[in-house]
Amino acid sequence: MRRLAGELGVATTTIYWHVGSRDDVVDAVIRRHGERLGEQATSGDTPRQRVMSVARHLWESALAHQGITRLAELHGETSVLNKHLEVAMARELTAAGVVGEDARDALRAILICVGGFLVLALRDERAITPERSRTAVWSGVEDPDVDPSTRLALTTQVDLPTLFERTVQNVVDTYVPEG
Which domain holds residue 12? Predict the structure, then answer.
């Protein structure tokens, strides 16, 4: 709080007076950032393109603002952070005729897919020891029921943004009718 007050050029007590505790400041930052995310324009000519646009906003904003993404996760406020983008997605699903439990399932499937990719994208690769790396683990696999070219391919990195696009697009295509 002292460092924040110093950067703002105010006394620490001023922050406590106007905002509240450290947790209140964190909550306010997460809520405000989430509101800004909701202000992003959705693009696309079809319902699938617009839903995909919102999914991309979730992905890109989490990567661009990793500090706030991690802060929201640590404080159990990921839903608060993403609320406005989730509402935007629900709006697009409604416009596509996907409502009720179908909309719930579509939205959650897309969010789970995006979240899974974010876990990989935000993972600290430095924490993985060489002997536990993907390359080392798959290099040691000698299963005759797994094709050797598959084993070799699994020792290499994947282009995560490209895989994100393909995978999330397939999920969107599963739930959102062509339009």
Answer: 2-175
